[in-house]
Design goal:
The complex is a heterodimer of chains A (365) and B (1248). Chain A is an alpha+beta fold. Chain A has two domains: 58 residues; 237 residues, no CATH class. Chain A has eleven helices and ten strands. In chain A, the strands form three sheets. Chain A has a four-stranded antiparallel β-sheet. A four-stranded antiparallel β-sheet of chain A has the order 2-9-5-6, with no helix packed on it. In chain A, helix 1 runs antiparallel to helix 2 and helix 3 packs antiparallel against helix 11. Chain B is α+β, with helices and mostly antiparallel strands. Chain B is built from 44 helices and 35 strands. In chain B, helix 2 packs across helix 4, helix 19 packs parallel to helix 29 and helix 35 runs antiparallel to helix 36. In chain B, the strands form seven sheets. In chain B, strands 16-35-34-33-17-29-32-31-30 form a nine-stranded mixed β-sheet, with helices on both faces. Chain B has five domains: 81 residues, no CATH class; 148 residues, Calcium-transporting ATPase, cytoplasmic transduction domain A; 267 residues, no CATH class; 187 residues, Rossmann fold; 247 residues, Calcium-transporting ATPase, cytoplasmic domain N, CATH 3.40.1110. Classes of the chains: A alpha+beta (365), B alpha+beta (1248). At the A-B interface, helix 1, helix 3, helix 4, helix 5 and helix 8 of A face helix 11, helix 34, helix 35, helix 37 and helix 38 of B. Chain B: This is Phospholipid-transporting ATPase. Chain B: InterPro entries: ATPase_P-typ_cyto_dom_N, ATPase_P-typ_P_site, ATPase_P-typ_TM_dom_sf, ATPase_P-typ_transduc_dom_A_sf, ATPase_P-type_domA, HAD-like_sf, HAD_sf, P-type_ATPase_IV. Chain B: One of its GO terms (molecular function) is ATP hydrolysis activity.
Chain lengths: 365, 1248
């Protein structure tokens, strides 16, 4: 290697024409002779230019302080924002005797409607979102989660006739008629309905829920499609509605024909299954007329059509009113977590500083 | 050498000079040979050898008769009833697969791996609908990729083997077919063919030499590929074939039947007979040309193929290489098993959880009704399998393939390293095995061969002392001593060997002036007293010497004007300066290891008779005449030479009167024909004449060390690597080399076989006396064998080794005792014979313990087998990682036994290289191989494994936490596609690059601080502790990754009021957090950031988002609605700032504590590596400055007096010379000479 280098040097110093040709020949010859010689590149010699960072005190300690301060900042912002959000949660499971929905929890009661009265002390600002919530409800149970037919739900008529096996046990009914939409998720769709009334001087004024656009745009427009058959009802010929349903899919919303079949908003919301056993799902927005600016203070009454059984498995049902901020709904966890971690960072930077000072690296080989 | 050696005959003590019995000799063979001992080999060719038992002679070959070998009696069953000739064709096949068998065979091989099989089983489990918790593609895609990568690698390897085979099989050779020689490819040669080979041809098969163009059918071969020895060997054709088979016609009619032993792997043995025209002729190895050798100096030679192809000795020797595994490999396997166990435990726990949950909640939840009437325990059982599938990623599927890729890369880096490339021979380093690299970073013991490994096996005439005056230091012609001399110009001497270098001009002046009688006598002796053979080539003389020392001496004489020109059976012709003279050789008293000297008695042209003798100083001084001058001065010079680790020989002469010689000659002849104890009688005769010698001077030869050997050894010693030298050489030579390569130093106490035996005996006796305490005390550290402070070294010979380790064959011992008329002594506590196997084992442990207490161990006079045994002893009892390095066939055993075998390549020999794992050209490259490549590979591999386990734990255990919130339903926390691609695309590239490129400190610092090597030896960077740290790290990160999003999702809603707390958003948040965490974590662990690393880390994250958005896009859902179900999830989830804040927090909590702990750990308990790393900049500056200043030349310290002498261990060519067969005759004298030689009877031939 050295010899070759030296050769190249002598070659480069010879400027004369003839000598440089000689040089070239010599080099060619040498290359042939040294056929096995490895390439001298930065990569093959493992000399790639590199940055070799070290976790030195000069980086780590200030880094921790900065990260800590940043986290505290974010934490404060989140915490303050979260505090400013108004949330009203009402449980209407009817487990307790004094609950207005207690009457609906008897077996054999059907079409039971219960009224839930509540009052709001101050203005519920902004668009108010109305959610229903279930707890101890395992929508994330694996077998439940796979019990649907995505092809059917994307409007493929062949899967209307023969739904996929994944829908088990709700593929066919007893008469061997295919169930559309098939599967456990669809079958167990939440079917309580709500009507909110504001009580002003004893008269009830309906507070309208805007049930449109409560599902993801992608679900409504892409993932779930009705078959392109008009009227929609015809597509469902020789199929049956899910066993627990009271109305077939094409009659979910009698008021709005576009809100039926697989693209019914409530259906879409239900089908987007929750990650955790306690969850909320959006039912409607209150953003119309006088209520566009929020729910004024006053007393309200919520008329609930109590259909959905949860007591058997120890579940609970609730409704939630909430407004939102830039960070979404109220959740103090994140703010507090940021604050804690940020403070810990600052604390640890102090600890590290002390340790660093104490064990200042003795200079030795 | 003041030690008095026990007489080899009478005593039972091992003889330091002789090698123990041959390698492969078994007890049986010993038995046979000693039983039939006194029987001399049957002279004459008429009778078959008496011991030729039929079983050994089962191999029959008929010349020029191809159909003969296909007779039914030579068929063997191959498969069912298909029969095949038992004679292999000459085509060799080393490849494994062909077009048809590649797929099935390769798959079969790959599924023999537990991990691959595991994934196959998983795949099958996933087909069962009841337990299929993950779709099939999550396992199939990674498995196919893994199998594919491995398969492609195997394919490339096999293609190379195909090419190699084809190249070899297509070599050309001349075969006698249809009565004339025709060119044929090697693969078409068959047993029984007569072939013709030309000069410098490779020998295509194992061939019986019939005749050659040289007189007496002598044929020189170079056996370098077989045994690594570069000096030529000669083979002789039988006299009968030599006489009758010179012409093509004669050869075509040749129809002998050869009966010989079955094919075997012994390179040192061949027995057979040739039945030719009704007579039987014995055949032995001297008649055989073995495949792999090369024909030299012989224009044409003819031979008969005996063994072809796979039956040849070289092929029988190769092949079955033991599959070596690294410590890390084993550890890794155990860890994978641990993970299996963990997986089963976790799955079982979760399955029980499911049983209880179903009992309490699931069975009551109407919406979970699945139409199956299964009780909760059965559901739990199914869930167990479901979890086995869901958590399968805990066993990292891509682990093995990644490890292989990394090792391949490391091997390439070794191959590419210019600093291990030997320019002179154009030999790069070569990693022949790609699976052992990280083991190079854990070596504790190095076993090195001497000749050709530590030394160059080049002897150089360096210095001499003539009549009390020393020469050899650089001087001017006038004799002024210079600091640095320019070499002597030999242009005045037309015969001079140009490569010979000498710096003392005064000696040349002295010789050329002819004034100094002693100096002339000195070189005359060198040119006369030897057994070198000469060959005249176009461009001068070529000397063939049995030992390189002799060659060096004769070459020196040649350059100084005393040119050895030719020899015949009884004359030697030299050219003394300008004058050619022929001396009559009266007797040649050859060298052997007991005599340590050789003499020659010559009759000068003027009628004087003189004996010249050269030999070791110890033996010569005993035999010097009292009148001899210069004794003291020569002794002083010898001391100086020995201190410079030169090998010395004393030269002396003695004038004999004619009567004196006549009297001795008579006695000598009697001794030669003595029936009993001929050797002893001859020895006595030699002793008698070699007395009253007159000293001329002494020569000093440098056994040239390879470049940089002492420095390398010193460096390696600093890295706590112990170096043992195992050599077949003599004790003195080995010890000498030990000093010259600074393995031994003056402050070392050297222990020899006797002391060792004594110490071991004492310990054993004590153990026998108090067995109980010793047995109980086995756990406490054994007390030191060398309690005195100071360094110790052990020099032990093969004989002692056997004695100490009880390896000695008992039968042989008994026989020897019987022959000596002694009864075997009864066993008593003082006796060193073992009582049982456990005692033998204790003895071995003791020996290894003792040897390991020493700084240096030199085993000399050891056989190849013992070399292997020593290595395995250390491996077995020290549980240490061993490396063997050697260059010749005698090192093959230890190279194969050691954890890592290194072959010195670029020399002619290939045997060591072929069985080695790494090969390079110079010993000094070992330093770089271990301290740089080994260390890097180890650190990289450990980093890789630690991180790899961590990343899969962090990834998989999230499912575990999620189980507690999903009814233990084996619901996975991520999208299926993410699970499929996580190990393949999202997290593997950065860690793979760390495994390939990472350097904590650069190569220069690695070499500067050998202490950095220690963590590797201790296995400190990857062990169960590290594994559990990885496990806990993984558990911690998975906890964070699950519970921070859990907290965030407990009650929330999106910016636009939509509830983002759905499963798909959750999966995206956890997956994104995981990707950020693992990629940033590997960034923290990367200490060598090249642009590729940057690219890989950023690329992995980018690929993650890229693929995720693709999979979540509308288009792909429309095409496969049931496969890609996360449509729109990414875009919907990731536009929420809230979720981004969650991801940031998760990543922060995952990383910050780790940084903090690392920082504190490095501050409080810094390792050597940390310290070097911290001061990296400073040290690099220092190195730069050091490089600018030239390092001072290596200085040899003062050493105590040692003796050495210059003969290597093989006997000279004296037999050949005296038999007269090989000597080139002058063409004119040819006819006459041939007659005279032929007619000399066997016994008289020795009468010189």
């Amino acid at each position: 290697m050295l010899a070759n280098a030296a050769n190249n040097e002598t070659c480069s110093t010879n400027i004369g024409n003839s000598s440089s040709r000689l040089c070239n020949q010599k080099m060619v010859k040498e290359e042939q002779e040294l056929a096995n010689r490895p390439d001298n590149t930065a990569f093959t010699q493992q000399r790639l230019p590199a940055w070799q960072p070290m976790l030195s005190a000069g980086i780590v300690i200030p880094g921790f302080v900065l990260i800590g301060l940043a986290f505290i900042g974010i934490g404060v912002a989140l915490f303050v924002t979260s505090r400013s959000i108004q949330v009203l949660e009402l449980d209407y499971t009817g487990l307790e005797q004094n609950s207005p929905c207690f009457k609906c929890t008897y077996p054999n009661v059907s079409n039971c409607v219960c009224d839930l009265d509540f009052s709001i002390d101050s203005l519920f600002k902004g668009t108010v979102f109305f959610y229903y919530g279930l707890s101890n409800y395992f929508q994330n149970f694996r077998k439940y989660g796979v019990s649907k037919d995505d092809v059917q739900l994307s409007g493929d008529l062949t899967n209307f006739k023969s739904p996929s096996d994944t829908c088990s046990p709700y593929v066919y009914d007893r008469n061997n008629q295919p169930i559309v939409p098939c599967g456990s998720i669809a079958n167990s769709m939440f079917n309580d309905t709500f009507q909110l009334f504001q009580k002003i001087n004893g008269t009830k004024t309906l507070v309208p829920f805007d049930g449109k656009g409560i599902a993801w745009w992608t679900d409504y427009n892409i993932k779930y499609r009705n078959p392109s058959v008009t009227p929609l009802k015809n597509a469902f010929n020789s199929t049956v509605k899910p066993i627990f349903w009271s109305k077939p899919a094409y009659e979910l919303d009698t008021s709005d024909p576009a809100n039926n079949g697989f693209i019914n908003q409530n259906f879409l919301v239900w089908m987007r299954r929750a990650a955790l056993p306690n969850f909320r799902k959006l039912y409607g927005r209150i953003d119309e007329g006088v209520y566009a600016q929020g729910l004024p203070a006053g007393s309200y009454s919520l008329a609930i059509t109590y259909n959905y059984p949860v007591l058997s498995f120890g579940g609970r049902k609730k409704v939630v009113f909430s407004n939102v901020s830039w960070m979404g709904g109220k959740n103090e966890f994140l703010g507090i977590a940021y604050l804690v971690i940020g403070s810990l960072c600052v604390l640890m930077s102090i600890v590290m500083l002390i340790v660093y000072a104490k064990f200042k690296f003795p200079e030795e080989d | 050498m003041s030690r008095q050696r026990a007489d080899s005959d009478g005593s039972l003590e091992p003889d330091d000079e002789v090698m123990p019995y041959s390698d492969d000799e078994t007890d049986d063979e010993l038995d046979v040979s000693s039983e039939g001992e006194p029987e001399p080999p049957v002279a004459g060719a008429l009778h078959p050898p008496a011991d030729a038992r039929p079983s050994e002679m089962a191999w029959k070959v008929k010349a020029n008769d191809r159909p003969y070998h296909h007779l039914p009696e030579f068929k063997k069953k191959v498969f069912l009833c298909i029969k095949k000739s038992r004679y292999s064709g000459n085509a060799i096949k080393t490849y494994k697969y062909n077009v048809l068998t590649f797929l099935p065979l390769n798959l079969y091989e790959q599924f023999k791996r537990v991990a691959n099989l595991y994934f196959l089983v998983l795949l099958i489990l996933q087909i069962i609908p009841d337990i299929a918790t993950l779709p099939w593609y999550t396992t199939l895609i990674p498995l196919v990729v893994v199998l594919g990568v491995t398969g492609i690698k195997d394919l490339v390897d096999d293609l190379a083997r195909h090419r190699m085979d084809k190249e070899i099989n297509s070599r050309k050779c001349e075969v006698l077919l249809d009565g004339r020689f025709q060119e044929s490819k090697w693969r078409n040669i068959q047993v029984g063919d007569v072939v013709r080979m030309k000069k410098n041809d490779f020998i295509p098969a194992d061939i019986l030499l019939l005749s050659s163009s040289n007189p007496n059918s002598l044929c020189y071969v170079e056996t370098a590929e077989l045994d690594g020895e570069t000096n030529l060997k000669f083979k002789l054709g039988l006299r009968v074939t030599d006489e009758r088979l010179q012409e093509e016609r004669q050869l075509a009619e040749f129809n002998a039947l050869i009966e010989c032993e079955e094919p075997n792997n012994r390179l040192d043995k061949f027995v057979g007979t040739m039945l030719y025209e009704g007579k039987r002729y014995p055949l032995d190895l001297d008649n055989m040309l073995l495949r792999g050798c090369k024909i030299r100096n012989t224009e044409v030679s003819h031979g008969l193929v005996i063994f072809a192809g796979a039956d040849t000795k070289i092929m029988k020797n190769g092949g079955k290489t033991r599959f070596k595994r690294t410590k890390i490999d084993e550890l890794m396997n155990y860890m994978v098993y641990s993970i299996f166990v963990l997986l089963i435990l976790v799955a079982a726990g979760l399955a029980i959880g499911h049983t209880y949950w179903y009992e309490a909640i699931g069975s009551k939840a109407w919406y979970l009704f699945d139409g199956k009437n299964q009780n909760s325990s059965y559901r739990g059982f199914l869930m167990f399998w479901g979890y086995i599938i869901a958590l399968n990623t805990m066993v990292p599927i891509s682990l093995y393939v990644s490890v292989e890729v990394i090792r391949l890369g490391q091997s390439k880096f070794i191959n590419w390293d210019l600093q291990m490339y030997f320019l002179e021979k154009d030999t790069p380093a070569k990693a022949r095995t790609t699976t052992l690299n990280e083991q190079l970073g854990q070596i504790e013991y190095i076993f090195s061969d001497k000749t050709g490994t530590l030394t160059q096996n080049v002897m150089q005439f360096k210095k001499c002392t003539i009549a009390g005056r020393s020469y050899g230091e650089p001087t001017t012609a006038a004799g002024l001593v210079l600091e640095r001399g320019r070499p002597v110009d030999w242009s005045w001497n037309q015969y001079a060997d140009r490569s010979f270098q000498f710096v003392d001009h005064s000696l040349v002046e002295c010789i050329r002036s002819g004034k100094d009688k002693d100096a002339n006598e000195f070189f005359k002796l060198l040119s006369l007293c030897h057994t070198v053979m000469v060959e005249h080539k176009d461009d001068g003389l070529v000397y063939q010497a049995a030992s390189p020392d002799e060659g060096a001496l004769v070459t020196a004489a040649r350059n100084f004007g005393y040119v050895f020109l030719s020899r015949t059976q009884d004359t030697i012709t030299i050219k003394e300066m300008e004058e050619e003279r022929t001396y009559e050789m009266l007797a040649l008293l050859d060298f052997n290891s007991d005599r340590k000297r050789m003499s020659i008695i010559l009759k000068f042209p003027d009628g004087r008779i003189r004996l010249y003798c050269k030999g070791a100083d110890t033996v010569i001084y005993e035999r010097l005449s009292p009148k001899s001058k210069h004794k003291e001065t020569t002794q002083t010079a010898l001391d100086i030479f020995a201190n410079a680790t030169l090998r010395t020989l004393c030269l002396c002469y003695k004038d004999l009167s004619a009567d004196e010689y006549e009297a001795w000659s008579k006695l000598h002849q009697e001794a030669q024909v003595a029936m009993s104890d001929r050797d002893a009688a001859l020895d006595r005769m030699y002793e008698q004449i070699e007395s009253n010698l007159m000293l001329i001077g002494a020569t000093a030869i440098e056994d040239k060390l390879q470049d940089g050997v002492p420095e390398t050894i010193a460096k390696l010693a600093k890295a706590d690597i112990k170096i043992w030298v195992l050599t077949g050489d003599k004790k003195e030579t080995a010890e000498n080399i030990g000093y010259s390569c600074s393995l031994l130093t003056d402050n070392m106490q050297i222990h020899y076989g006797e002391d060792v035996n004594e110490k071991l005996k004492v310990r054993q006796a004590r153990r026998r006396l108090e067995p109980a305490t010793f047995r109980q005390g086995t756990k406490k550290p054994a007390e030191a064998f060398f309690p005195e402070p100071g360094k110790n070294a052990l020099i032990i010979t093969g004989g002692w080794l056997n004695e100490i380790l009880y390896e000695k064959k008992k039968k042989r011992r008994r026989l020897r005792l019987r022959r000596l008329g002694k009864r075997p002594p009864p066993s008593n506590p003082q006796d060193c014979q073992p009582m049982d196997d456990s005692e033998k084992e204790m003895r071995q442990i003791d020996f290894v313990d003792m040897a390991c207490e020493c700084e240096a161990v030199i085993c000399c006079r050891v056989t190849p087998k013992q070399k292997g045994n020593v290595v395995s002893l250390v491996k077995k009892y020290k549980k240490a990682v061993t490396l063997s390095i050697g260059d010749g066939a005698n090192d093959v055993n230890m190279i194969k036994t050691a954890d890592i075998g290194v072959g010195i390549s670029g020399q002619e020999g290939m045997q060591a290289v072929m069985s080695s794992d790494y090969a390079f050209a110079q010993f000094r490259y070992l330093e770089r191989l271990l301290l740089v490549h080994g260390r890097w590979s180890y650190i990289r591999m450990c980093k890789f494994l630690r991180y790899f386990f961590f990343k899969n734990f962090a990834f998989t255990l999230v499912h575990f936490w999620y189980s507690f919130f999903s009814g233990f339903s084996s619901q996975v926390a991520y999208e299926d596609w993410f699970i499929t691609l996580y190990n393949l695309c999202y997290s593997s590239l950065p860690v793979l690059l760390v495994g390939l490129l990472d350097q904590d400190v650069n190569d220069k610092l690695s070499l500067k601080f050998p202490k950095l090597y220690l963590p590797g030896q201790q296995g400190a960077l990857f062990n169960y502790r590290n594994f559990f740290i990885s496990l806990f790290h993984g558990i911690f990160v998975s906890l964070v990754i699950f519970f921070i999003p859990y907290g965030a999702f407990l009650q929330t809603m999106g910016q636009d009021g939509e509830a983002p707390s759905d499963y798909q958003s959750f999966a995206i948040v956890t997956a994104s957090s995981l990707i950020f965490t693992v990629n940033l974590q590997i960034s923290l662990e990367t200490s060598y950031w090249t642009f590729v690393n940057c690219f890989a880390v950023l690329g992995s994250i980018a690929i993650y988002f890229g693929i995720m958005f693709d999979i979540h896009s509308a288009g792909i859902h429309v095409i496969f609605p049931s496969v890609f179900t996360f449509t729109g999830a990414a875009s919907n989830a990731l536009r929420q700032p809230y979720l981004w804040l969650t991801i940031i927090l998760t990543v922060g909590i995952s990383l910050l504590p780790v940084i903090c702990i690392q920082f504190l750990h490095k501050s409080i308990w810094p390792s050597v590596g940390d310290k070097v790393q911290r001061n990296r900049k400073k040290y690099e500056m220092e190195l730069l400055q050091e490089e600018k200043k030239k390092a001072p030349a290596f200085e040899r310290g003062r050493r105590s007096r040692r003796s050495a002498y210059a003969f290597s261990h093989s006997r000279g060519y004296a037999d050949l010379i005296s038999s007269g067969r090989s000597i080139r005759r002058r063409p004119a004298a040819r006819g006459v000479f041939q007659e005279s030689i032929r007619e000399v009877p066997q016994t008289a031939a020795e009468n010189i």
